[in-house]
């Protein structure tokens, strides 16, 4: 089989559809995460802003709607999607996403591009299959039937709104059919790009004006230092970013740092700190006075934290690569400890859609067990009268309420503390009657987060 001509191959390197296909293949073949691959691709390929936005939409949209797209592929392909080679399966998904869910891309263009990619990257072996399936799909995808919402609501929501059946079953039991449908729809929408003001280097109004000079920008509803950036492509290229005037961090994630409420001069532990969003936010809230010990087992994540702190001009963050479960911090206790625990990530499907296809039911129980161990360990390092905050980015009750209830039973010296007196006014509505923070995509337009603030009795 002859290799493609080098000259013919090179123009496709900057084509957003070709780049999206490469990312999708690597996500499925190697278990990589789309945001990391996308970030690397955008840094190494010079794309116009429009192509930058298209590439991002193609990657996240195809992953989010994967189950729905596979349902359609199964109708028009002689082999089930699971039996297709990964390059072919991901190419069909990518093309069908454009055909069925992106109104601005003509169907003929999506088919033509997919066939051309098959010719150039697969030596033409898959071009016939890709062409046949997509042409049949163009003619009939709108007539594809799905399970009945009335007779099989789980099957309907799973296939039509593209979530694994086991996950839909869990959420229907937790929220009911109607709210689960709203949740699934919200999950499939792209997550907004949110800037977090570095209040040590700028002011909210000034940063808002500077960002509006490059793109649409507006204040967020909950965090008082958050700005939503429209068409977030290339946000890191904005001069204000290089100057350390802002970071990119989801709004719900920002709220957790306000829950910790670190004060200037205090000694704070971030027990699961990588990649550093909350540690650096807390340092800003502390006016860069005091000490934040930032611990994580992920060496790459800790290095990202170091770079982030340098860019923001923060000197009080002390990054440490170690396993919290075996780490010994010494005799000195901490005024505040944050356990932003590793979790299933099921609250972040808008920005990490591949998670729903990677996770299995047994993963939730395994993470809950780790979370309990981390909480017990971290509780030993809180001074009498100090604060312990437990946070996750999931909406699974086993990782949230169940872990909190278990911990309080194990450590009665800790009690859930009402955080509202120290929270910004806009956050009060996110706190329940039990004093716990819960956010949901379908209710608040935020990632799904859980956070409880516990106070150690003196």
Please tell me about this protein's structure.
The structure is a single chain. With 458 residues, the protein is α/β, with parallel strands linked by helices. It has 4 domains: 6-143, N-utilizing Substance Protein B Homolog, Chain A (Orthogonal Bundle); 153-187, no CATH class; 193-248, Sun protein, domain 3 (Alpha-Beta Plaits, 2-Layer Sandwich); 251-456, Vaccinia Virus protein VP39 (Rossmann fold, 3-Layer(aba) Sandwich). It has 20 helices and 12 strands. The protein has helices spanning 6-9, 16-30, 34-44, 49-64, 66-76, 86-101, 107-121, 127-140, 153-160, 165-175, 177-187, 204-212, 239-242, 251-260, 277-285, 299-312, 355-358, 361-379, 401-410, 441-444, and strands spanning 193-197, 217-219, 226-229, 246-248, 267-270, 291-296, 317-321, 334-340, 382-392, 414-416, 437-438, 450-456. The strands form 2 sheets. Strands 5, 6, 7, 8, 9, 10, 11 and 12 form an 8-stranded mixed β-sheet that branches. It has a 4-stranded antiparallel β-sheet with strand order 2-3-1-4, with helices on one face. Helix 2 (16-30) runs antiparallel to helix 3 (34-44) and helix 2 runs parallel beside helix 4. The longest helix has 19 residues, at 361-379. The chain is globular, with a radius of gyration of 24 Å. The relative contact order is 0.09. Mean pLDDT is 93; it is low at 1-12.
